[in-house]
Amino acid sequence: MTPAARNLVCLWYDGAAEEAARFYADTFPDTHVYAVHRAPGDYPSGKTGDVITVEFAVMGIPCLGLNGGPGVRPNEAFSFQVATCDQAETDRYWNAIVSHGGQESDCGWCRDKWGISWQITPRILMQAITHPDPATAKRAFDAMLTMQKIDIARIEAAIGGDV
């Protein structure tokens, strides 16, 4: 079991929990696959030896990947928010998800090929949209609304009033 985890985020997959967990481990720091559990016998939608659950952590967050089948699709009600330090890190995570069968969305959101939503969020964006000066916060917020992947230079320009 994931070390010392008392509460896990359970993510539903249609047979790809292990593939997803290994992709996350290859992509994000402090991400590990701890255990792959296989069915001890045949069951209605599978057979002995099929992967039924995967214990892993994404950037330190303990997760359980459940191969629950096609009956449930993830949506934006749950997402991982990854705080990035610079444009290179933002680009690296965004591009890893999108270029591996994922899909771009708006305002720094994207979805991986298994339907899990990710917010790739530069720290400066969060600082800007919560800025104590309402005009600065609004300029940064308005700039964000025009983006898919966040462009830090454009956020910085908005902070400075150069938009």
Largest sheet: 4 strands, mixed
When the domains are counted, the total is 2
Name given to the CATH homologous superfamily of the largest domain: 2,3-Dihydroxybiphenyl 1,2-Dioxygenase, domain 1
CATH topology of the largest domain: 2,3-Dihydroxybiphenyl 1,2-Dioxygenase, domain 1
The order of strands across the largest sheet is: 1-4-3-2
What percent of the residues sit in helical stretches (DSSP H or I)?
25-40%
β-sheet strand percentage: 25-35%
Count of helical stretches = 5
Q: Please count the beta strands (DSSP E, at least 2 residues each).
A: 8
Report the end-to-end length measured between terminal Cα atoms: 50 Å
Architecture of the largest domain in CATH? Roll
* Overall pLDDT level: 95
Strand-pairing-aware structural class: alpha/beta
- The radius of gyration is 18 Å
CATH class group of the largest domain? Alpha Beta
Low-confidence stretches: none
What string, H for helix and E for strand, traces the elements in order? EHEEEEHEEEHHH
Overall outline? elongated
Account of the protein in words:
The protein is α/β, with parallel strands linked by helices and 163 residues long. It folds into two domains: 7-71, 2,3-Dihydroxybiphenyl 1,2-Dioxygenase, domain 1; 74-163, 2,3-Dihydroxybiphenyl 1,2-Dioxygenase, domain 1 (Roll), CATH 3.10.180.10. Helices cover 31% and strands 27% of the residues. It contains five helices and eight strands, in the order βαββββαβββααα. The chain has helices at residues 17-27, 87-99, 123-129, 134-145, 152-159, and strands spanning 9-13, 32-38, 51-58, 61-67, 79-84, 103-104, 109-111, 117-122. The strands form two sheets. The protein has a four-stranded mixed sheet, covered by helices on one side. It has a four-stranded mixed sheet with strand order 5-8-7-6. A hairpin with a 4-residue loop joins strand 6 and strand 7. Helix 4 runs antiparallel to helix 5 (152-159). The longest helix has 13 residues, at 87-99. It is elongated, with a radius of gyration of 18 Å. The relative contact order is 0.14.
